[in-house]
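Its record is set out here:
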Amino acid sequence: YNLAGNVHVAIDVVGIYDDHNHDDRYYTEAEIDAAIAQQVAQSNANVGLGNSLATISSVDLTLPDVCPGAPDSWNVLVHADGYFLTGGAGPGSATIALSLDGTDFVTGTVVNQNFASGGGQFRESYSTTFLFTVDAGTQTFYELGSMSHPNGVSAAQNTLIAESVSVDC
């Protein structure tokens, strides 16, 4: 029905499409995957354990800023493992822990090992892992250790690996 005049074409408008402004504010999935894949740091050390909690090794991991206009939330998996040799005279214990920037001590990753009494030398192995959530920039992760044993540590091999596994915006 037409109120006045003749009708030749009827059009029903339900929406409009506007040009998209491609201003490169967003990274592609491939770009983020590539940034994540490059973020691995490793440290190897031959450091024995003292009688108070101290740094065994550390790694710096530089994480890019990939979230435009928002803080990054990088998930970094930090893993420490190794062994140390100690004399066998009397019992003792060792503690291995992880830390972020030397201040945020991760108590959940503490590993205590009790040495048996007796003679000879004991090889004590350890392994501990923790998932840290950090912002973009350079982050320093520490492996800490201490021990209580009368004969101390005669040799050690330590590995600390920090690897970014994902990022959330």
